[in-house]
């Protein structure tokens, strides 16, 4: 028996478009028992919503978000700026529909905690989009760590370096205002890096230190109606009120220690998320900028003269590969776009089976608690337990 899931997306910006891409492609291979009906893109910018709906094959565009919430859709994706999550997500959750929300769910742990409580009280499936977890190389590294390949992990490092904010003439969007975004690099890209670190090395118990810095202190205000990183600007300038770079050190529940390095102004590094772990029996690392491979080392194997780190190319033996690769053979590669397809597939399978998603609201709340602890640590120069 085939189940049809009627889908709508709230938000037509970059994240909403990534979700639309995911649903469009997930519908081709998500399951033999699930059919995806692409219904509507809802956004107050109706022209943009229509453009996205046309591009990804959705039936219609809606200007009023409530019209989608009150419709007969089964699934709603929410891909909005951080400051709108606390306003919109409670209404979506209250509708009883299955919900897939882009990270982060809010601006701080107070907002994420309240939303997590609502999610836990719902009978629907609710997930959060930590798309990097669906990259086969990172998922395989996590599997290796959890299987004990590296022994007991004692040290780890994660990073997310990007250059989307490196141009000082870039528009002053909501991402650069703490009142709307919360922290800057620490949350915008840091949520992904912290989640990836905890995915591989386990949950963080304490932030031992943190340093934040705003390097580009003012930017030109975006022109009216402009959206996105490349928005056109006006002659007016305004202050940047959150961080461009952040360094965080932490202790995990397992006792492992770690460091997280974050930058949204990393010239020459367009988009690199990585994790490396060291344990009593080996080590492993992954970098998304070379996302079709990962590296592992197992101590004590064979002749020590020839036992070194192994470069492993992703393929059908690794998670999230076969159902998203255009030609599912080892070495052909998958990437950032396919990760969105994989996470939507995972979500829809959970909806179809009634099983909770691994990246549920509680996972997002845990990440937000780490972010909040880092903010307190940076301000008060002390360790902060979660």
Fold and architecture overview:
- By secondary structure, the protein is an alpha/beta fold.
- The protein contains eleven helices and 17 strands.
- The strands form three sheets. It has a nine-stranded mixed beta sheet with strand order 16-15-14-13-7-12-11-8-17. Strands 3-2-1-4-5-6 form a six-stranded parallel beta sheet, with helices on both faces.
- β2 (34-42), α2 and β3 form a beta-alpha-beta unit.
- α1 (14-29) crosses α10 (336-353), α6 (136-147) runs parallel beside α9 and α9 packs across α11 (361-380).
- The longest helix is centred in the C-terminal third of the chain and has 20 residues, at 361-380.
- The mean pLDDT is 94.
Count of individual helical segments: 11
Strand content: 25-35%
Multimerization state: single chain
Biggest sheet character: 9 strands, mixed
Radius of gyration from CA coordinates: 21 Å
Which whole number gives the mean pLDDT?
Answer: 94
H-E string: EHEHEHEHEHEHEHHHEEEEEEEEEHHE
Strand order across the largest sheet: 16-15-14-13-7-12-11-8-17
Task: Please state the structural category.
Answer: alpha/beta
What's the total number of strands? 17
Helix proportion range: 25-40%
- Measured between the Cα atoms of the first and last residue, the distance is 46 Å
Identify low-pLDDT runs. none
CA-based shape: globular
């Amino acid at each position: 028996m085939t189940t049809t899931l009627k889908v709508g997306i709230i938000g037509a910006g970059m994240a909403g478009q990534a979700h639309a891409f995911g649903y469009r492609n997930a519908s081709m291979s998500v399951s033999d028992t699930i059919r995806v009906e692409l219904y509507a893109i809802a956004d107050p910018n109706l022209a943009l919503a229509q453009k996205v709906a046309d591009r990804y094959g959705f039936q219609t565009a809606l200007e009023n978000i409530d019209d989608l919430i009150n419709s007969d859709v089964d699934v709603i994706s929410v891909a909005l700026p951080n400051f709108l999550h606390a306003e919109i997500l409670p209404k979506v959750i209250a509708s009883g529909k299955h919900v897939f929300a882009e990270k982060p769910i809010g601006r701080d742990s107070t907002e994420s905690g309240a939303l997590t409580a609502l999610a836990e009280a719902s009978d629907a499936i609710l997930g959060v989009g930590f798309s990097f977890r669906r990259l086969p190389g990172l998922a395989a590294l996590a599997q290796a760590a959890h299987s004990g390949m590296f022994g007991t992990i004692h040290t780890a490092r994660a990073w997310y370096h990007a250059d989307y904010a490196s141009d000082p003439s870039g528009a002053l969007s909501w991402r650069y205002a703490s009142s709307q975004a919360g922290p800057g690099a620490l949350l915008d890209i840091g949520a992904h890096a912290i989640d990836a670190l905890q995915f591989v090395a386990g949950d963080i118990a304490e932030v031992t230190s943190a340093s934040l810095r705003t390097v580009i202190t003012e930017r030109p205000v975006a022109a009216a109606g402009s959206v996105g990183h490349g928005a056109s600007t006006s002659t007016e300038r305004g202050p940047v009120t959150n961080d461009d770079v952040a360094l965080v050190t932490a202790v995990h529940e397992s006792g492992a220690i770690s460091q997280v390095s974050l930058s949204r102004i990393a010239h020459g590094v367009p988009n690199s998320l990585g994790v490396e772990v060291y344990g009593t029996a080996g080590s492993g690392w992954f970098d998304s900028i070379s996302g079709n491979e990962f590296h592992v080392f197992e101590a004590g194997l064979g002749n020590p003269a020839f036992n070194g780190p192994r470069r492993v190319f992703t393929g059908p033996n690794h998670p999230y590969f076969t159902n998203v690769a255009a030609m599912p053979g080892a070495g052909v590669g998958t990437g950032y776009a396919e990760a969105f397809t994989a996470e939507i597939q995972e979500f829809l399978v959970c909806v179809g089976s009634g099983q909770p998603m691994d990246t549920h609201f509680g996972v997002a709340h845990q990440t937000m608690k780490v972010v909040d602890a880092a903010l307190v640590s940076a301000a008060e120069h002390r360790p902060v337990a979660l």
